[in-house]
Amino acid sequence: MENLFYDINLDKVPAHIAIIMDGNGRWAKSRFMPRTYGHKVGVETIRKVVKECSRLGVKYLTLYAFSTENWKRPKEEVSALMGLLVKYLRNELEELHKNNVKILTIGDISKLPQACIEELDHAKEKTKDNTGLVMSLALNYGGRNDLVNAVKNISQEVVDGKISVDDIGDDLISSHLSTKESPDPDLVVRTSGEQRLSNFLLWELAYSEFYFADIHWPDFDEKELQKAIFAYQSRDRRFGGIK
């Protein structure tokens, strides 16, 4: 394969990569630009990463786009983020569909503006039968909130007599999370040098490999993605056992 910056084993590319896209605002501030400009450039990075994941054979890509805590940001910034989401879907949907990408969402999108909900529903419906890269957008998503909702739903099923307490285990809990359509991530990447989860996929990342990039999200490109995958392939994943 051409344009490999690192000696990646294409037979051992992580099936599922999850990314905490961090640093848009700081990237813009360092250039004396408004935070919204950083988010706009960050959308271009999404385009690059989606294409490269498809090219390398990654099966699932989950992007932390908007957390349940992000509502605390200034209204102008939140509004800009929602506008960028709509614009991204409108501009990119045909290309994504052409490239066989399937779009999913995780999180409670019912709290998003109606324009966002309509674009997301349209994108998911249009790409539902695609068999290539599965791209999940985490929107109004929080790992704790997802777990709370799962516990509530499972508890109601116990009360209704549909299941017993003894039926509750890892698989049942996983099946009640909004991430149930994707396997647990093999690799989670966070940009901007921060080293925390920020309420992202708390259940699903139990045995994931972590990679922290010191650059901000707008500077993350195909080479940086390959660098993260190369680092992942150098590790020995034992899942709590011995090899």
Automatic annotation (TrEMBL):
GO biological process: polyprenol biosynthetic process
Record keywords, A-Z: Magnesium, Metal-binding, Transferase
Listed cofactors: Mg(2+)
InterPro entries: UPP_synth-like (IPR001441), UPP_synth-like_CS (IPR018520), UPP_synth-like_sf (IPR036424)
Alphabetical list of PROSITE patterns matching this protein: UPP_SYNTHASE (PS01066)
Enzyme class, broadest EC rank: transferase
Single annotated GO MF: manganese ion binding
NCBIfam families: PRK14830.1, uppS
GO cellular component: cytosol
Role this protein plays: Catalyzes the condensation of isopentenyl diphosphate (IPP) with allylic pyrophosphates generating different type of terpenoids.
Protein name: Isoprenyl transferase
Active site feature: 22, 70
Free-text cofactor note: Binds 2 magnesium ions per subunit.
Record carries keyword Ribosomal protein: no
EC number of the protein: 2.5.1.-
Assembly description: Homodimer.
PANTHER family: DEHYDRODOLICHYL DIPHOSPHATE SYNTHASE 2 (PTHR10291:SF0), DEHYDRODOLICHYL DIPHOSPHATE SYNTHASE FAMILY MEMBER (PTHR10291)
Binding-site residues for substrate, renumbered to this chain: 23-27, 35, 39, 67-69, 71, 73, 190, 196-198
CDD domains, sorted: Cis_IPPS
Record-listed Mg(2+) binding positions: 22, 209
Keyword Chloroplast part of the UniProt annotation: no
Organism this protein belongs to: Peptostreptococcus stomatis DSM 17678
Family: Belongs to the UPP synthase family.
